[in-house]
């Protein structure tokens, strides 16, 4: 089968579109999924650069998110069957024509949701779900600040917070991205390259500040988060696109009774039941029409170009690799 391999630690050029051995039959509890689309995430870039722990020794197939059709199942599998449309996150080696997945971790993909959408929502959609629901669930009257509001992750967070009745402020780095964040539903958009976002949040909220701040940027934003937070506000750090935030004394949280939390999706999908419930809520939002996926596609063979765009901050929304594979993977 065809797949992308990372042959060395380095730039996008180390991504190679190559032939790899077929996966064979699924083992007990597994399903063989013929992929139609694979999601591209910054985690994949980190694996390629060597800044995130590698999932396996070099060379390896990157990716952990996708959607496709179950081709075969192993012994003891009842959650899915051959022919089912499914999506997933947390399954390694997804930049390929097929993966072997633990069947109980697969998400049923309803008719009416495309495979490209199926590859775009699991990681970011489920992450958005726990970030919105597990710390300070927004309600009418709350002010919510979302960093990188034009990205795939930021756009989903903006939509979910607006759906729950909050006033949403988003930070972006360009006028084009400001338009994208506005389209996602942000009430106010702050271009942080031009304006100090903490000052703007206070100004736009008449001095109140943000009740909830969701930050996947880290180093370049956290100090501003502390200034922008409302009394009894809550800051959630779930990533570090600009690097890890600088150390801070817990005592600095005391004057305004600020709460700071760290988020990691793995801790909120620890059981198949929890994964399925969060995925069900995301799929319901997509089907109801209030949660819209902003995505762009490239062929699997152009994974290097996808990484270039992601690293160059040229993307708005989610990048998905389409997989054009026809023959049955169990045919030989």
Description of the structure:
The chain has helices at 42-49, 115-120, 122-133, 152-163, 175-184, 197-204, 222-228, 272-288, 303-311; strands spanning 2-6, 15-19, 30-40, 65-73, 85-89, 98-102, 107-108, 143-146, 167-172, 188-191, 210-215, 229-237, 259-262, 295-299, 318-322. With 332 residues, the protein is α/β, with parallel strands linked by helices. The protein has 2 domains: 2-121 and 293-322, Medium-chain alcohol dehydrogenases, catalytic domain (Quinone Oxidoreductase, Chain A, domain 1); 125-266, Rossmann fold, CATH 3.40.50.720. The strands form 3 sheets. Strands 3, 4, 5, 6, 7, 14 and 15 form a 7-stranded mixed beta sheet that branches. The protein has a 6-stranded parallel beta sheet with strand order 10-9-8-11-12-13, sandwiched between helices. The longest helix is centred in the C-terminal third of the chain and has 17 residues, at 272-288.
